[in-house]
Specification:
The complex is a heterodimer of chains A (187) and B (80).
Chain A: H1 3-12, H2 36-57, H3 60-77, H4 86-97, E1 101-106, E2 116-118, E3 121-131, H5 132-140, H6 147-164, E4 168-175, E5 180-186
Antiparallel strand pairs in A: 1-3, 2-3, 3-5, 4-5
Helix pairs in contact in A: 2-5, 3-6, 4-6
Chain B: E1 2-5, H1 15-19, E2 25-28, E3 31-34, H2 45-49, E4 55-58, H3 70-79
Antiparallel strand pairs in B: 1-4, 2-3
Classes of the chains: A alpha+beta (187), B alpha+beta (80).
Bound molecules: iron/sulfur cluster (2 copies).
């Protein structure tokens, strides 16, 4: 390694900045545009972790990631207002997920209400539009619906359970490149 | 949702009919016809599967795309 390169490196990591302990950063640095590489690094890393987990744990990988997501959902939603009304709970959830995931409540045209009762089940269809999990999977060439999707599932179920105090389950109906349809089953 | 099928491009393979989870399309005279457009939830699986790129959705919400490989894009920019 040449001395020139080492000097160049030292130069890169040196600044004349005076940093005081009270200088708590209030924003992410650097600017979002410059974060693109970091984001891609995180997506690659997540993809590799999930791929390895699947290789080692097989189908058990889904259980691990689901549980992790569920714990996270309970943890985060603990600080949110408790709501018995499912619609209000979903509103609360969309605030919770903002920036990473966006979803809307959806119904096929032959259904009258968003809360559907069918074959003894009560459920709501959710269409997930923006989803960081989908982005990560596509970035890594991985199939949708696997263990990484289970983290989101767990997260949503955990958060809904925490907010409403009711047991819930989330099922994949369809995964697509632009949106995914999920069924939130309420118990 | 306003869904249009380019009748000249459609080869009548029926892949969109099979793949759409909401049964939006039907094959009529060997051409796909969106018979239940209001049932579309915008997943765009049909766009991905259509070999003829014959489909068009208007009024759709395009999900954020972070997955584009920036290194590949940089290389392409140099080449193109
Ligand atoms: S976008 Fe999805 S739901 Fe809509 S027509 Fe295509 S496959 Fe069906
Ligand atoms: S997938 Fe494309 S080419 Fe095949 S039937 Fe549908 S619109 Fe036509």
């Amino acid at each position: 390694m040449s001395a020139g390169y080492i000097d160049e490196l030292h130069e890169t990591f040196h600044s004349d900045l005076v940093y005081r302990s009270e200088d708590i950063p209030l924003d992410c640095t650097p600017k979002p545009k410059e974060m693109e590489q970091t984001l891609h690094g995180v997506m690659k890393l997540n993809g590799l972790v999930i791929r390895s987990l699947e290789e080692i744990a097989g189908r058990g990988a889904n259980a691990v990631t689901y549980r992790a997501g569920k714990k996270f959902g309970h943890e985060v939603a603990k600080y949110f207002q408790k709501r018995e009304n499912v619609e209000e709970a979903l509103h609360e959830l969309s605030d919770l997920l903002r920036g990473q995931y966006s979803f809307e409540v959806w119904k096929p045209e032959d259904k009258e209400t968003f809360i559907i009762e069918e074959n003894g089940e009560t459920f709501i269809y959710l269409v997930f539009h923006d989803c960081i999990v989908r982005q990560t999977l596509r970035r890594n060439g991985l199939d949708q619906g696997g263990p990484l999707c289970q983290t989101l599932f767990g997260y949503v179920v955990g958060a809904i359970e925490e907010i409403t105090g009711r047991k819930a389950k989330l099922e994949i109906v369809h995964t697509g490149p632009n949106a995914c349809l999920k069924k939130l089953v309420l118990k | 949702m306003d869904i249009r099928v380019d009748k000249d491009a459609c080869v009548g393979c029926g892949l969109c009919v099979k793949d759409c989870p909401m049964h939006v399309y039907e094959l009529q005279n060997k051409v796909s016809v969106p018979v239940r457009p209001n049932n579309c939830m915008g997943c765009l699986s049909c766009h991905e599967i259509c070999p003829a790129q014959a489909l068009e959705h208007r009024g759709i919400y395009p999900a954020r795309r972070h997955y584009i490989d920036i290194k590949v894009c940089e290389m392409l920019r140099k080449v193109i």
